[in-house]
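Moderator note: this is an archived Q&A kept for reference. The question asked for a predicted structure of one protein chain; the sequence and the answer are reproduced below.
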Amino acid sequence: MKPNNLIPKLDVFNSKFILRDKRFLWLDYDKGISIILVAYGHCFFMLFDHGINMAPYPYFNYIGTFLYGFRMPLFFIVSGILISNSLRKRGLPAYLLNRVNNILYPLLVWGGIQISLALLSARYTNSDITMASYLNLIINPRQTGHFWYLNALFFIGVIYSLLKTKLKVSIGIQLVIGFVFFSIAGYINMHDLQAGLLTDICQFYLFFAIGDAISNIFLNERFVHRYTSWKVFLPLLLLFLVIQYKFTELNLHGGKDGINYVEHKLPWFYLFEALIGCSLSVSLSFLLQKYKVLSFLRVIGYHSLYIYCMQIIVMNIMRIVLISILKISFVPLLFGLIWTSGIVIPMLFYNVCLRLNAWWLFTFNKPHDHYDYIKQSRLDLQISDR
């Protein structure tokens, strides 16, 4: 076999398929930045919750708190940016089926896997996981950990699309609805009330609507070219640093709300902080797209959903291996290895599953674009070898 025939096999992250020339590269950059920050937070709290003494390393907590607050709103804004274009191309039935395929299905599969593993290990971990946790994936997702995000993303997309297409609700009215919902979520959080999945739907609906409202601008290449500028990025960076400093100081003294103090008790400051953070992330993504650097962020961003689904499972397994088997106790090394593994291993696992035709772990529709690309690449290699 010639050396170049090994190329497809060595492309373990499927990067050639992901890095093909296409429009709006900044979207994958943006998602890559966001999921790395999400992984950082998950890693910190997982170690903290399992008794690792993080007090001698206060910078881990400070950095995680400083970079908190805008990363999840950013995912909702990005999803909102894409909805109008998707509805135009596919229509409502296909759009809703796509939401079930790409969001609800992995929520149920991977949420179910994580709950099942927790039930199996409950006697050793004193976990409060019960059979009811499977139902909570839908009705009270915060009780199942990080899967609340997929739950909210699915239901917000469904509600928003139905209002947009069936009732012809304008973007302006959608924004008004979003502000009303956000106010309701603020009241719920400020008074420590419980509303299950409705709280997250109310809180993040506005960000989804904002995404749709700005989609004609941010999916316009002339706009992206105009605002891909250091003159935009640097003032945003300065404003971001000032706001995040105050945001961090408040959250570090947040009492029982902890890192969620601003989000729960100061919702309008949280909204302002989140929008500034999202703006900075988008601006940075524009610059990365312009200079075509750090392409690995695009690869990570493409895998962001799969990383999110598997991250906690992978991190917990790595924690057990590193601490109990390899006896690693140096916290910075432990943190770095678990944080990295929570990003890299899900990407590897996803692509191994595709090679083994186990795509059904992530979607009930076979990803034909991936397999068509691989087939064409092999044909191209055979032709070039002749």
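Archived answer notes: The CA atoms of residues 34 and 132 lie 31 Å apart.
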